[in-house]
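Continued from yesterday's entry.
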Amino acid sequence: MANRTALILGAGIGGIAAARALRRRLPPSDRIVLIDREADHRFSPSLLWLMTGARRPEQFTRPLAALREHGIEFVRGTVTRIDPAGKSAAVDGTTYAGDAMIIALGADYAPETVPGLTAGGHNLYTLEGAAAARDALAGFTAGRIVVLTAVPMYRCPAAPYEAALLIEANCGERGVRASVQVDIYAAEPAPMATAGPAVSAAIRQMVEARGIGYHPEHQVTAVDPSARSISFANGATARYDLLVYVPPHRAPAVLKEAGLLAESGWIPVDRHTLATRFPDVFAIGDNCVIPLKIGKPLPKAGVFAHGEAEVVARNIARAWTGRGAPASFDGHGACFIETGGARAGMGSGDFYAEPAPVVRLRQPSLLWHLGKVLYEKYWLYRWL
């Protein structure tokens, strides 16, 4: 049989996991081509530790070129065009084609769509923004810190609540907590609502028990950096001295140009196989959408991207080699929730359960904090 090529667009958690899983299952003669515009991979959950000074960027950054040592062809470049019918992509003027294609380009951040947001605050989801928030927080001794979610749906739904808890703990460690007010202004009606009302209520209680103000259903319309003021669609305003935010998300423009997006603005896929409407083309991670029975989509999170990648890799390898059993993504996932003071909670469960997801939240402890630390090390040293 002729040698085959698996083309993977995007080297986030999903793309890397897919590449490594395919390499384990395919013969050396089959090619695995992984494309990303960045030279380095950053473990994004560690950005919140960077924000509080617990990590330096180099501690959670690895060169993607290291994947070549594992038999994966890494190409650095920007995907400028995708032909899903032909299973090919143009990358800085060069076209790459495969026998199967996995699209894992993630979500783009669009803070510029909210007037004043970029100038008025720090983006928690970028290295530059988290580092700037760290520097601002280090010298912050009095005033009001606002954690803002700019839209109701975003990747890593625990992150803004972790951020607020870690900021509050940091202020306590520096002895300035009495002179600092921390507030969350959330576009969503409740924390991590997809996980169910019990988990949502527990997260809210966890936040408010620490004296953090929680203001749901506040959809930001504009930020005035000079006045340090936030305006909301409900007519409310809020003053701040330091603003950190979760930005609006959107699918990369190249996906829209390729005709891959649904009305949701994301790539629709089969919830069990991650197949798109194009034969042998799959989408995993943040750039795809999987509706749940409760009317909300599966959350965008690295744990789901990793699980989806394993399923897609197993099914491609089975189709090419005839070995192995069919794989099906089952909607199970888990995430840690850092609360500061070397403590973390952990939520896990079945998001495909009907009529609603069944998720359990374990209370913060040293054990779960150590679990997150170990997972960070496992990912960086096992997969890269």
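--- second protein ---
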Amino acid sequence: MLLVAVNAFVGAMVGLERSTLPLIGEADFGLTSSAAVLSFIVAFGLAKSFTNLVAGVGAERAGRRRLLILGWSLALPVPLLIAVAPSWSWIVAANALLGINQGLAWSMTVVMKIDLVGPKRRGLALGLNEAAGYGGVAVAAALSGWLASQLAPRDVLVAGAAGIAVTALVVSLAFVRDTAAHVRLEQRDHDTDETAPTLRHVFPEASYRRPPLRACSQAGLVNNLNDALAWGLVPLFLAAHGASAAQVGLVAGLYPGVWGIGQIFAGGWSDRIGRKPLIVAGMLLQAAALTMLAVSDGAVGLAALAAVLLGAGTALVYPTLIAAISDAVSPIARAPTVGVYRFWRDMGYVVGGLLAGVAADAIGYSGAIAIVAALTAGSGLWVALELHAPARRPAPAEA
């Protein structure tokens, strides 16, 4: 539960930006191009993706706790850079640091929870982890959107980020302990001669060689592609149709709020009925929600309903994908494989930021959203074809 609380702080760091930063780009820095505004998401996604790779391999060598603390240490300069930024490039640099923070801190809370619970409750643990993280995103997004309608958006973002980063660093230093001993215990019941795989080995395995891992990796990428759109483009889409900062904050908060709460149930549900049905259904539900948003003409009521459906679809997918990855590999290969999956998943921010920004400039907001809806539906069908239940390993003895 301590790790659940820490991950809520991780999510809140990103949530502060959900309803404020795209608006700051237009109001404080005079940006008129959607591609220029969304450049901060591209920087965030690149930094987080490559950090996930390093974190996955480094977890077995440097230790989970050390990487968690390093992640929070690197979050401390983020609010300072945003506060003094004379140009948008400083905001982009701050988001690169934020991406490193997220890649280290979120990856370590995920892996440490999986270490602690063992295979029987893996989906539930991941559901709790992701629920806390995206619950933090939702609360911070809604609260910062409301405060931004009363105060200067940049001041809200800076004060909130500073408080969260300092608190989470102190909690991690004082209370979090490493989980390496739990990994050794679980690995003892598998193959005692196996060693942690190198990145050179695990990257192609998780990226394209093994169909179940490949299906999960592409689905993760597409899932965060549409999350990038929700983060960076939807606030601009709504504002262009006359929505207030508070209304933007409401929609920005509903989506991760439903996503967060739904994962508590989805993770445990996938332990009982399997991973594939929830992933396929979730991707198709996301596609339907994005289609509704594309035809809404920015009406806040329809946008709010689409946000709820998008959150429900993502809740079915998000913890289930990581559980499916973990099912398919041995305990000692878990952290590196999850790191590669998270690399591809968070590359979705890069692809989504570029695609949504360029498409919005070329064919408008609705057209950009419709393109992402089609890609999401295709991704769900890919999972339906390639993801199969792995051969079950013998369950380890209860500790």
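The chain has one domain: 2-176+193-386. Confidence is low (pLDDT under 50) at residues 391-399. Will compare against the first tomorrow.
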